[in-house]
Amino acid sequence: MDNGSAPTFESLVERHSMEIYSYLWRMLRHTADAEDCLxxxxxxxxxxxPRLRVDSNPxxxxxxxxxxxxxxxLARRSRREASTGDLQEWGAEQHxxxxxxxxxxxxxxxxxxxxQALPHKQRAALLLRKYQGxxxxxxxxxxxxxxxxxxxxxxxxxxxxxxxxRRQEERYAPG
Length: 175
Hints:
Layout: H1 9-28, H2 31-48, H3 58-80, H4 84-93, H5 99-116, H6 120-131, H7 136-142, H8 147-172
Helix pairs in contact: 1-2, 1-3, 2-3, 3-7, 4-5, 6-8, 7-8
C-alpha cells in the first residue's frame, strides 16, 4: 500500500474510535464487551492495515472489522449465558426513582431487547444506517451485500421492530 496518500493508522484510530465504540456498544449492549471488541477491531485492523488499498474507504473497512468482531462476540456470549442477563444488568445501571424516567428506561430496554433479537445482518444494517448515519453503499460494503440488500435489511428490521412493538403493546395494554 502506498502510505503517501492514505491516512496513517494512528489517525484512523483517533478519528474513528469513538463512533466505532458507539456502534459496538449498540450491537453488544455491554460496556466491557464493547471495549474488548473495540480493542480487537483495532488489533485486527493494525494487522491488516498494510494490505489496505489506497482507493478503499477506511471508515467502512473499520466498520466491517467491527461488525465481524461483534458477531463473534455475540456468538461467544450466547454460548455462555442467556441473552437477558446483560439487559437486566443494563436496566439496573439505568435505575432512577422518577416514575417517568423509570417508564422511559423500561421502554428503551424493551426496544433494545427487540433490536437485539433481530437477525445479525438486519441489526447491523439498522444500526449502521439509523444510528451511525452511514450511507447505504457503506452499509452494503460492511455487511457484504448489495446496496439494495442493505436497504432491504434496514426495511425488514424496521418492519419487524414495529410488529414486535405492537405485540408488546397489546400484551401489556391495560384492561
